[in-house]
Amino acid sequence: MSLSSCVKDNNDEKSSTPEDSSIQSDATSSLSSESSDQISSSQDVSSSVQDVKENDIKLHKYSLSEKLPEISINTEGGMALDDPSLIDPSSHKGSKGELPVYNYVGATINVNSFGEGYDINDAVSQVKVRGNYTSSYDKKPIRIKFNKKQSMLGLNNGNKFKSWVLLAEWKDTSMLRNTIASFIGNSMMESEGHFASDFRPVKVYLNGEYNGVYNLVEQQQIDPDRINIPESKLPTDGVKTGYFIEYDGYYKNEPSIQTFTLNYSGQNSGNAGYTVTNDIMNQEQHDFVSNCMQNIWNVVYDAIKRNHDDLTINPFHTLTSDGEYVVDTSTSVEEAISKVIDIDSLVDMFILHDISEDRDIGFSSFNFSLDMSEAGDRKLTYVSPWDFDYAYGNSTWGNALSLNLASQSSMLNSGRLLRNGMEYKFSNDCILDKSDFKISNSTTLYSSTTDNPWFNIFAKEEWFWKKVVNRWEMAKDAGVFTEASKLITLYTDKYSADYEENAAKWPQSFGITLSGYQPNIVKYFANQRQAAEYLKIWFEARINGLDSAYKSKVK
């Protein structure tokens, strides 16, 4: 089966290839040009499987076309997406409300898939600048909203949707962090029916002008083929429906009917605010979902933090269909929590973020679904992993794994590293490998030590760690992590000319850091290849370190 148009298909069976206990730490980590061998290997991994069991991990199918597809966006009157007239004076974003919000502008969209059969011709749509701080960068992310549902380049099994997203990947000069997070997320979550966005690199043209390489991904939304829960449409709708909820540090910028806060009873937390992403139709729904979320937290907190040795005196609690906090017949912490939280989704998301060490999870861009309908499971489910440009070694937040140059002086002497005053930069032809770096903090347990209360409250639960380690071993055996590492090489090699063209369009994205939490080495990269080499080295070190850390958690 060719990978030239290989997209995910939940009905296809894919091979679970046994891997070594971890990515080999003594293997070279530099990127190579052995794409043909790697594509052949990827075909083997992705094309067949025997004796697939329920919830087995199957590698997500990703696209590797000969040419990057092109998306052309032509706005009405050729208006720029950040034209001042498109700023919404009634809205704002950012932690201090300092960022503008842009309105949609009408547009037509064309897609050239170069013979793959995914072309779109003059589709009527609306487009706008999207994102929080990413909207302030020179190369801006784009939200697409078609007038009629469209399939986009075969993503999500070719299903049709109105809403799509183009990520600019400005902060991530490898342009691959969201890609490997989406690959890992899909590989682990699809088998359990939980949504993670599909992805594909594309070239984008705005009003006839080349605008760079983007990452085409899916809009986070309630839909039978995305986040599959009910959704209210009318003000007269009742409260027993589905809710798509973000743990959101920017919640104060949203309409109050869409937001609420929680009391964590003293548990370590990053923020108290939440935004319901789907429209709340009435005050009753707002009050209901906020009460449900508070009581789900109360059930979890009670189960873990209080003594239940004598259940006749201190019983466990649960959530009723009306969202009320009541005494329950559970006889263990795990049983009580499993009645209000989808444990499989928790474990998958925990591992994904433990690997990536994502800076944002203690603050924002962290999603749940809650189906409180009559047919719903009434469990808080961890869904739609999102926003990984501040992850995988692109942040120094906390006790994250770090790569420091092993010998800056030798690299200077050899000409692989250049100095201009106090500024350093790798030479254009410098190829980075593992021997160039000293690795620190590779075994840090990240998810359980962040400010995200929905992770760190489980830090001392033995039953939880057993599930994490078991799922980790399943992912290793399926080849998820080796394939994710390979994906960095495959895309970098295959689309090297496209990444060079993007860098020529946006040279100012190199040689900078955008916050005090990005490692200084980000400023050293001269091109996308070096950023990808660094990412690959970091990723493989993290998998090896976390493998060791997990083994120590379960004796």
Molecular structure report:
It is a single chain. This protein has 555 residues and is α+β, with helices and mostly antiparallel strands. It has helices at residues 35-47, 177-189, 283-305, 333-338, 343-356, 408-414, 453-456, 462-478, 480-494, 496-505, 528-553; strands spanning 70-75, 87-93, 99-102, 105-112, 120-129, 142-150, 161-167, 199-206, 209-218, 242-247, 259-261, 273-276, 317-319, 325-327, 366-371, 380-383, 402-405, 417-420, 423-426, 437-440. It is built from eleven helices and 20 strands. The strands form six sheets. It has a seven-stranded mixed barrel. Helix 2 (177-189) runs antiparallel to helix 5 (343-356) and helix 8 (462-478) packs across helix 11. The longest helix has 26 residues, at 528-553.
Question: Which helices and strands, and how do they pair?
Answer:
Elements: H1 35-47, E1 70-75, E2 87-93, E3 99-102, E4 105-112, E5 120-129, E6 142-150, E7 161-167, H2 177-189, E8 199-206, E9 209-218, E10 242-247, E11 259-261, E12 273-276, H3 283-305, E13 317-319, E14 325-327, H4 333-338, H5 343-356, E15 366-371, E16 380-383, E17 402-405, H6 408-414, E18 417-420, E19 423-426, E20 437-440, H7 453-456, H8 462-478, H9 480-494, H10 496-505, H11 528-553
Parallel strand pairs: 1-8
Antiparallel strand pairs: 1-4, 2-3, 4-5, 5-6, 6-7, 7-9, 8-9, 10-12, 10-15, 11-12, 13-14, 15-16, 17-20, 18-19
Helix pairs in contact: 1-9, 2-5, 2-9, 5-8, 8-11, 9-11
